[in-house]
Structure of Hemerythrin-like domain-containing protein:
Amino acid sequence: MEVHKPIKRHKALQPLSRQHHFGLLFGWKIRKGFAKNIAPERMMKYASWFYSHEIEPHFNDEEKYLFPILDPSHELIERALKEHRRLKRLFLDTAHPEKSLHRLEEELDAHIRFEERILFNEIQKVATQEQLDKIEEIHSDIEKAPDYEDPFWDE
Ligand SMILES: [Fe+2]
Ligand SMILES: [Fe+2]
């Protein structure tokens, strides 16, 4: 029987992995909001805030420093970029909050699991020390986003 040992996340990628944790928490908050019948418009405001404070900078860092470690035509990179475009569209689609939020909580989770289970492992396998050092340098000064003013999930 083949045993899959979990691959240890390289420390240069740990800050991005920590942000993934906040992304999963976002999905949990939206599900909680739906369960409590919070107005979709109110949750969408949080989604817009979360997009500009967490998601957009995170996507930019991945696209600028991480993805170029693999070939741009690599199927995993094509998939990741396609998912970024799709998620961005959903986060910015404030005209249909209910639909966007349902898709977001599902698709953001799926994107994060894809990166954690597949893409990041592949990237850390081929990255040079220099590339990893560069990523580490950029993330040594990551700041935590401020708390959101309307925590509807806690009501
Ligand atoms: Fe991503
Ligand atoms: Fe990510």
